[in-house]
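Why do we bother with holo predictions? Because pocket geometry can differ from the apo form. Keep that in mind while you read this record for flavin-adenine dinucleotide.
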Amino acid sequence: MLDSKVPAGPLAEKWSKHKFNMKLVNPANKRKFTIIVVGTGLAGASAAASLAELGYNVKTFCYQDSPRRAHSIAAQGGINAAKNYQNDGDSVYRLFYDTIKGGDYRAREANVYRLAEVSVNIIDQCVAQGVPFAREYGGLLDNRSFGGSQVSRTFYARGQTGQQLLLGAYSALNRQIQKGKVTSYTRHEMLDLVKIDGHARGIVTRDMISGKIETHEGHAVLLCTGGYGNVFFLSTNAMGCNVTAAWRAHKRGAYFANPCYTQIHPTCIPVTGDHQSKLTLMSESLRNDGRVWVPKTREISAKLRKGELHPAEIKEDDRDYFLERKYPSFGNLVPRDVASRNAKEAVDDERGVGKSGVAVFLDFTDAINRLGEDTVRAKYGNLFDMYHKITDENPYKQPMRIYPAVHYTMGGVWVDYNLMTTVPGLYALGECNFSDHGANRLGASALMQGLSDGYFVIPFTVGDYLANLGSFAPVDKNHPAFEQTRQEVEGKVAALLALRGTKTVDDIHKELGKIMWEYCGMARTAEGLTKAKAMIQELRKDFWQNANVLGKNEELNLSLEKAGRVADFLELGELMVDDALDRNESCGGHFRLESQTDEGEAMRNDEEYTYVSAWQYTADNQPEVLHKEDLVFENVKLTQRSYK
Ligand SMILES: Cc1cc2nc3c(=O)[nH]c(=O)nc-3n(C[C@H](O)[C@H](O)[C@H](O)COP(=O)(O)OP(=O)(O)OC[C@H]3O[C@@H](n4cnc5c(N)ncnc54)[C@H](O)[C@@H]3O)c2cc1C
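The structure, written out:
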């Protein structure tokens, strides 16, 4: 039975009361505990720094050569917080409500309220660290709007918010490394979880330079390993992002929740061909001032595609600002799932733009006329430069072309209110867990969640677990579980290195990505998903028979690293499809064509599907077991989402 451990009592008091009711670890005893933090992006770095500051011994692990290269650095647009600096009607409750509604009523109320509540502390914490948020003329921190909300609550540092936040967390982390409270292991990839008597007590890693397979012990393990969007091959995620740590923990007993909830971001640079291995996001902040449109008719679109017309030559009357037309109150700032589906609809209707026709315009002409080019440059200059460099088109002179791309995964390791997984002592934070965004994440809420988990939630909840252990003894590093798990990892590495077929791992990954995009992407059907399941099973066989993994273990071996990750993606892909098949309703980013309103919007089925799907691994090639966590809504009324 899944117990979310949501505390009783009124929503706004739950977290405060819970903090008071949890046991504390005496300062002198904190140094007797060691906590393993896997991942040093915003979630991991903030957790590790905070826990070390409290006095715990911390070991951090990441696969990059420095914690500051974590994928969080790529975040552009901003971070939400209910500070109400704009005095435009924001509040903790409104941020809570927007997030629950934005997630299409598929998130836990208590978690979301806590997130909104601590959001205000995050900004203070980051400012104290010196994060250079944009400021207004009067000196207050500036805000901009993001999708799914009618207030301006997004704090930002030009188009580099993630980088600046990560530098803040990284500085705090480094302070603790310098003090000897954190031992940092870079270029180390976690390949398995070690359990003793059912509790997480360590990990197995591979030193990515020497190939050495090592074990590390600790009293608790925190997975902060990011999202799994790269299961689609093409995504806006960094090339290294993967599911391996989460997946291997899943195979050791951590349930995986809502794997099919994927966010497909509307404002990305469109795919140009089969040669690409990465897609580029143009921040959602651009929808503050950019207007999304396509021509009203197929004829005009056809002329645009052939280069017979320039966008500027298309008269106002011939343009369809489809988001403004369909959603007058939110306009271009509808949530991502809604914006993406509408772009797809325009393209499917053959009104797309660009040579391929698989794109829509994001146009700044009005903003430049209204605000002046200098103001637009000050707000978005680095994003415009990036677009210009990649496409060789000047967005000050002609509209950007954008199209949806895989961006974020709302699904992830199931956690209770304390962020603990179904394995005692194992926690998941940041994008790695499923916790707060339901079926669709609002823009600028991932950074907020990662830092909330790391700075403000885990320092309390992990303490409660440790205080209840009843012993301060170090974990026995000679326990046979360590050697046994290490040998199992060695066996898996050897199996990968024995693959000497004719296909590259990348080819297989690309094939998987195409299946996922086609059948488990923006629109899904029972028929397509059933087909995809069979195709993925075949592809997995193909991988284990025909993949070619070069080199040996005792060296820097990118081919081996990639093979391990793709092997896990092939298993996860099937679970995503199973999950999407099980959820015979549309909600947020999960759009089942069978379940839509007359106007083509996602139609939920609250009677049957108001639950979190938490999947339990059983054995290789065996169906996983579905557990359901019922979602209880005591504070908001479930309605058909409307942004009109
Ligand atoms: C282009 C882009 C722009 C974005 N912009 C925004 C934005 O403006 N606002 C917003 O709120 N969100 C944004 N997001 C989302 C947000 O950036 C991420 O959700 C968030 O940064 C994830 O942080 P994290 O700490 O959970 O994981 P990450 O930053 O991905 O860090 C993962 C860490 O885990 C480590 N790791 C992974 N696997 C292993 C392993 N097996 N062993 C050892 N270490 C491992 C990595 O080395 C890394 O240190 C954006 C995302 C993208 C792709």
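The chain has a mean pLDDT of 96.
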